[in-house]
Fold:
Amino acid sequence: STKDCATVMTFAQVICLPGIIILCFLSDNYIVEHYESGAPSTEITGVTVSPTEKHDVRESCDRNAESSEPSKSFLCLPEHRVIPVVIAASDVMTGCAAGMSIRYFTIFFMDNLQLSPSIVSLLGILAPLGQIVLHKLAHVGGERIGRCQMVVMFKWIGILLMVSMILAYKHDFHVSIVCTLYLLRTSFMNATSNLTKSVLMDSVPRNERGKWSALESVNMFSWSGSAALGGILVVKKGIIFNFYATAAFQFISTLPLILLFKRVKD
Structure:
């Protein structure tokens, strides 16, 4: 009922409040000062510098070395912009694909699978737990075979699990199997966000990282627009067709990353 929903939402807001209060007392300046005072300084070409200054010196040297090389272009982009633009484009497409279906999984569980609200909420709790495990696995795999390669592999596994979930439902498999496939699919699809972000941050100058990080807000905006598109597909073709379209769009979003397999240094 409406009253029950209001109670749940109020309780959720109360739980979030302590975390918000704690964040108000955090200071970036304290973190940087603590890091610099606790870490040993390093001597570079006869000059003693702190770890953060060391990073700036090396970054400056890298930029000077790049500027001395002849400029190249790829996909009509300057060479130094290829990696961040491709990563950002892939992330935006992935966000649009996710927005098409993420709002409708709850409807699918309650209307198609006849699950209770408590079970649907339990699925929402279990999915992040799987992501924690796969985050670590993705990090280790990224060091071994490459970050972009690991992202593509995890995304493709997630897409296959999405299709498997749909087929399991259509062939009347037990509800527990469908839900398990959903949890695995969600965990694999969301376990590589740190890898793509690390590639993006490593490929842009330090003073531009905030600007590129702001693309996260574009992704959130794209979720709303793609959710509307997903709603149109649900009305016109049905919720299962929308899931198929999501899987197809997610596959397309991984294709730009293949271009970076030999460009990203791991």
User: Anything to note?
Assistant: Residues 39-71 have pLDDT under 50 and may be disordered. Residues 106 and 120 are 7 Å apart (CA to CA). DSSP finds twelve helices and four strands in the chain.
